[in-house]
Specification:
This is G-protein coupled receptors family 1 profile domain-containing protein. By secondary structure, this protein is mainly alpha-helical. It is built from 9 helices and 4 strands. It has a single domain, classed as Rhopdopsin 7-helix transmembrane proteins. Helix content is 78%, strand content 4%. The strands form 2 sheets. A two-stranded antiparallel sheet has the order 1-2. A two-stranded antiparallel ribbon has the order 3-4. A hairpin with a 4-residue loop joins strand 3 and strand 4. Helix 1 runs parallel beside helix 7, helix 5 packs antiparallel against helix 6 and helix 6 packs antiparallel against helix 7. The longest helix has 38 residues.
């Protein structure tokens, strides 16, 4: 068992604030992700749509990533409280799982973007709407995820960072860190390209499909928020990478802040998915619909009474 332990004199107060925000953010992300999954399973049972299964796959990836990040945040908070930099025997395992779930999560976002392209642009292709296509795509996703994951693990890319008390791919292992950032950039480029093409397609729909175009544009506004949430984690990591390449050093607390950015980005992404899903909105925001239905029924009843009254007067005359 490889144990490294260093006693540090003191830790700034904001370290505790940073760790606490990470814990709160990851708890919210986990709760929202699994509420979404359980709600869709309950509403779609026994026949599940391909689109909902793919979105559940994305939420599962975010939930698993947030779970490992939550464990890491609790471990970091404990070490900050004690003032001890300590690598336990499960640190490398947590870092390995976090790397796997990171790759799984970003490939899931690519799969979600592909599904949106399938639903909007290629909705008339029966091959793309079959469960066989879904199975092939998910198997392909996991195959890519495992291959990319092995490329990092087999090169010994996971290590302990004393500044953040976490095991992950440190920037000192430049090749592995750049490889991970390339995976992130490729995934974001794919997602952005797909949604830009969808936007171009929707804006050029004929006027006869104006209602459909309006509905898709509303959906794309939510997708824009989702993209912003996904870009947030990569901003600071990219800055740290460029700073390391050009100056050869970064502050020891950099990855604490970077991990907090990751938490905000992933939690914001799963909340955006939750709020923008039509079935979820109908399930948890019924009150407004019920009130509208009551008003419509009341208006119809009043109109019926007025018509009946007029008929009676005419019959008397």
């Amino acid at each position: 068992m490889d144990i490294m332990e260093n006693i540090t004199s003191s830790y700034p107060l904001w370290y505790f604030v940073n760790d606490s925000l990470m814990i709160i953010g990851n708890v919210i992300g986990i709760v929202v992700a699994f509420i979404f999954i359980f709600t869709i399973i309950r509403l779609d049972h026994p026949s599940y749509s391909i689109s909902n299964l793919i979105v559940c796959n994305t939420c599962l990836a975010i939930g698993l990533t947030s779970t490992i990040m939550l464990i890491n945040a609790c471990y970091a908070l404990k070490n900050d409280f004690r003032g001890i930099s300590h690598s336990d025997s499960f640190c490398i395992l947590r870092g390995t799982l976090l790397t796997l779930f990171y790759i799984y999560m970003y490939t899931s976002f690519c799969l979600k973007a592909f599904n949106r392209l399938r639903c909007i642009v290629f909705h008339t292709h029966s091959i793309l709407t079959s469960y066989r296509c879904l199975l092939i795509v998910i198997v392909f996703q996991w195959l890519i995820t495992i291959l990319l994951f092995l490329a990092i693990i087999l090169t010994d890319g996971i290590d302990y960072d004393s500044g953040s008390h976490l095991c992950f791919i440190p920037i000192t292992k430049t090749n592995q860190f750049i490889f991970m950032m390339i995976i992130y950039y490729i995934c974001m480029l794919f997602v952005l390209s797909v949604y830009m093409y969808i936007l171009y397609y929707v804006l050029h729909l004929p006027l006869l499909e104006r209602y459909r175009r309006k509905r898709q544009l509303a959906l794309l506004r939510r997708i824009l928020v989702l993209l912003i949430m996904l870009i947030i984690p990569g901003l600071l990591s990219s800055f740290l990478l460029f700073h390391w390449i050009f100056f050869g050093t970064i502050p020891s607390y950099s990855f604490k802040i970077s991990t907090l950015f990751d938490t905000f980005g992933h939690t914001g992404a799963v909340i955006t998915i939750f709020v923008s899903h039509s079935k979820i909105r109908r399930q948890y925001y019924r009150r407004k619909t019920i009130q509208i239905n009551k008003v419509i029924k009341k208006v119809q009843l009043d109109n019926f009474e007025l018509v009946s009254l007029k008929v009676r007067r005419n019959s008397k005359q």
